[in-house]
Design goal:
The chain is α/β, with parallel strands linked by helices. It is built from 22 helices and 17 strands. The longest helix has 48 residues, at 3-50. Residues 155-271, 466-584 form the Response regulatory domain. The modification 4-aspartylphosphate is found at residues 204, 515. Residues 19-124 form the HPt domain.
C-alpha cells in the first residue's frame, strides 16, 4: 500500500472514531432533551383538554415535528415513527390563523388529536425508559452489571434458530455496547461472515435444515476465520457433544438454559484474550516498546489535541552508534540484547505521557508532549549520560556498552508529521557527522520566519469561510457543529429566525444551514427576505434548507424561494457534510 493510501486509511479510521464518539454524545444529549419534551407534551395535553388554546395546540405540533426530524439522526427510529404519527394528528393546526376557542373546543380534530396523542405518549415514554437504561448501563462501571463487555465494544454474530432467545441475547448484548448481527440458519451465517468482520460467534448446534456442526468446517477452512472465537450454545448437556465441539475448534461450550451474566463473562474472557493478542500488533516483539505503526497512529492524534489546546511538543530521533559492529563482531543475538537494554533504559527514564517507539533497526523515536526543544535536549542528555555510565547488556559474563546519537526537533505551526520526523532525522545525522555520542537540535527558523508563519496562520484563520446554523433543536445543532467543526470554517449558531436574520443583516456569511420551521421568522420567510432585501450583507450566501417536510411541493417551494440545496430529516450526517463542503467550495 502506498504512503498516500496509508494516510487516507488513517484519516478514514480517525473520522470513523470521531463520528462514533459524536453520535454517542449526541444520543445522550438527545435522550435528556427528549425527557423534557415528553414532560412538556404531557403538560400541554392536560392544558388543552381543559381549554384548547391555539398556541398550545401548535406547540404540540412543533415538539412532535422536532422529534420526528431529530430522533432518527441519533438512531432512534421508533421514536421518529411515533413522532411522525403525532405530527399528522396536529398538522391541521397550521391552517388556523384566527383562533376561536369555543370553535376549537367543538372541532372533532381536537378531541381526536388529544386521544391519539395520549396513546402515543405511553409508547414514547416506554422508548424513553429504554433510552435512559441504555445511558445508565453505558455509564455504569460495576463489572457485575455487564460493563466489562462495554469496555471492549465488540461485534458479535449470533447463530440460533430460536427467535425468542436470539432476540433476547441481541437486546442484552446491545445494551452492553456490542454490535450484534443475527442469523437463524447456517447459510445466513455464512453470508454474514463473508460480508462483515466479527470479534466472536455464538453457535447453536441443533438447527434446521443444517445443524451447527456444518459451520465448523466453514470457519476452520477459511484462513481469515479460523482464529475467530466461537462459543457453542446447546440444549444438550452431553459430554460427547462437548468433546466433539472442542476437537472441532470451539473455544467454549455453554448449556441452555443459562444466566446471561455467566455468558457475558465467558464472552468477555474470550474477547479480552483475543484483544491481548491484537495488542501485540502495536508492540515491537523484541523490545516490547511500541512499533512504528502505533507511533504513526498516536502522533496524529497528539497533534490534533495540540491544535485544540496549543502546547509545545518535541520529537527525538535516536540511532545507536556503531551498531553494525556489534552485530558483525558478537552476532545478532547480542545485538538484540543491546536493543532490549536500550529500550528498557529509555522507558524507565521517560514520563508516562511520553511516546517511545522502535522506528526500525537500531532507530527509536520519542514524542515528548508539553516539552520545548531545549527541555527535550536536557532530558535526552541525562539519558545519554546514564547510557555512558554503565552497560546496557550482558552475555555469558561479557558486558556491552553503547552510545547513541540523537536529533531533536520541536513541532511548529504548519509542519506536517513527515517534515517533523525528517527534521529530527536530519539533526541525528548531523550528530553522527559531528562525531556521534551527542544530542543535536534541528535547525530552527529565525524569529522573523516564525513571526511570518504565525501571521500567515492568523490571517488564514481570519480568512476562513463562515457558516451559520439556524435550528431550534439544540441537540441537532450540537451534533451538526461536532460533525463540521474539523472543517476549515468558522461556525455560528442561533435557535430562532429573528436572531438569524439580524446576523445575516449585520455580518457576512458564506453559507447557512436553515431549518424550515423556526420560532419567530420561519426558514421560508428568511429565504424571501434574503431575496428581496437589498441591504443584506451576505449577498453571495449559499443556503442549505433542512426540513421535516418531504413532499415534492415543499422541496420545490424551498428551491424556488432561493435555497441552493434541500435535505429532509432524518438525514445522513456524512451526506450533509459533503453538501456543505460543495456549497462552501471546500472540495
Amino acid at each position: 500500500m502506498s504512503h498516500r493510501n496509508i494516510e487516507r486509511a488513517k484519516d478514514s479510521a480517525s473520522e470513523s472514531d470521531r463520528d462514533a464518539r459524536i453520535l454517542k454524545q449526541g444520543k445522550k444529549l438527545f435522550i435528556r432533551e427528549y425527557d423534557k419534551q415528553l414532560q412538556q407534551l404531557q403538560s400541554l395535553l392536560t392544558a388543552v383538554q381543559m381549554k384548547p388554546i391555539l398556541e398550545d395546540l401548535q406547540q404540540c405540533y412543533r415538539i412532535a415535528h422536532t422529534l420526528k426530524g431529530s430522533a432518527p439522526v441519533f438512531g432512534y427510529i421508533r421514536i421518529g415513527k411515533l413522532a411522525e404519527d403525532m405530527v399528522r394528528k396536529w398538522e391541521w393546526t397550521l391552517a388556523i390563523e384566527k383562533p376561536d376557542n369555543e370553535l376549537l373546543l367543538s372541532m372533532s380534530p381536537v378531541h381526536e388529536s388529544i386521544e391519539r396523542t395520549d396513546e402515543l405518549l405511553l409508547e414514547l415514554k416506554m422508548e424513553l425508559d429504554i433510552g435512559l437504561t441504555e445511558i445508565q448501563l453505558d455509564e455504569e462501571k460495576d463489572p457485575a452489571s455487564g460493563s466489562m463487555l462495554r469496555t471492549l465494544r465488540s461485534r458479535i454474530l449470533l447463530v440460533d434458530d430460536d427467535d425468542a432467545l436470539r432476540s433476547y441475547l441481541t437486546r442484552r448484548l446491545q445494551l452492553d455496547d456490542c454490535v450484534v448481527d443475527e442469523a437463524a440458519d447456517v447459510e445466513s451465517a455464512k453470508k454474514l461472515l463473508r460480508e462483515h468482520t466479527y470479534d466472536l460467534v455464538t453457535l447453536d448446534l441443533m438447527m434446521h435444515p443444517q445443524s451447527g456442526y456444518e459451520l465448523f468446517d466453514f470457519l476452520k477452512e477459511d484462513p481469515t476465520l479460523k482464529w475467530l472465537p466461537l462459543i457453542v450454545l446447546s440444549g444438550r448437556d452431553d459430554i460427547s457433544d462437548k468433546v466433539r465441539c472442542f476437537h472441532l475448534g470451539a473455544d467454549d461450550y455453554v448449556t441452555k438454559p443459562f444466566q446471561y451474566e455467566e455468558l457475558a463473562a465467558r464472552i468477555y474472557g474470550l474477547l479480552k484474550r483475543t484483544r491481548n493478542f491484537e495488542q501485540l500488533a502495536f508492540r515491537d516483539p523484541l523490545t516490547g516498546v511500541f512499533n512504528r505503526r502505533y507511533f504513526d497512529l498516536q502522533i496524529g492524534l497528539e497533534l490534533q489535541r495540540i491544535e485544540r489546546y496549543p502546547a509545545p511538543i518535541s520529537l527525538v530521533f535516536i540511532d545507536i552508534d556503531s551498531f553494525k559492529n556489534v552485530n558483525d563482531t558478537y552476532g545478532h543475538h547480542v545485538g538484540d540484547l543491546v536493543l532490549q537494554g536500550l529500550a528498557h533504559l529509555l522507558q524507565v527514564n521517560l514520563r508516562s505521557t511520553d511516546l517511545l517507539a522502535r522506528f526500525g533497526g537500531e532507530e527509536f523515536v520519542i514524542a515528548l508532549p508539553n516539552t520545548t526543544v531545549d527541555q527535550a535536549r536536557s532530558i535526552m542528555q541525562d539519558i545519554l549520560d546514564k547510557v555512558r555510565m554503565k552497560p546496557v547488556a550482558q552475555n555469558e559474563g561479557q558486558t556491552f556498552s553503547i552510545t547513541f546519537s540523537a536529533g531533536v526537533a520541536e513541532w511548529q505551526v504548519g509542519m506536517t508529521i513527515a517534515e517533523w520526523v525528517a527534521k529530527a532525522d536530519d539533526a541525528m545525522y548531523q550528530a553522527k557527522q559531528q562525531g556521534k555520542n551527542r544530542i543535536v537540535l534541528a535547525d530552527l527558523e529565525d524569529e522573523g520566519a516564525q513571526f511570518t508563519k504565525l501571521v500567515a496562520h492568523a490571517n488564514a484563520q481570519l480568512q476562513k469561510k463562515k457558516l451559520l446554523i439556524v435550528d431550534d433543536d439544540p441537540i441537532l445543532r450540537a451534533i451538526l457543529i461536532s460533525q463540521l467543526e474539523h472543517l476549515p470554517i468558522v461556525i455560528t449558531q442561533v435557535s430562532d429566525g429573528e436572531a438569524a436574520w439580524q446576523l445575516l443583516s449585520d455580518q457576512v456569511f458564506d453559507a447557512c444551514i436553515l431549518d424550515g420551521i423556526l420560532p419567530g421568522l420561519d426558514g421560508f420567510t428568511i429565504l424571501e427576505k434574503l431575496k428581496t432585501d437589498t441591504n443584506v450583507r451576505s449577498k453571495d450566501l449559499k443556503v442549505l434548507m433542512l426540513s421535516g417536510k418531504k413532499k415534492a411541493a415543499d422541496v420545490a417551494k424551498g428551491l424556488l424561494m432561493g435555497a441552493d440545496d434541500y435535505m429532509t430529516k432524518p438525514f445522513s450526517l456524512v451526506e450533509l457534510e459533503n453538501r456543505v463542503k460543495q456549497l462552501m467550495k471546500l472540495i
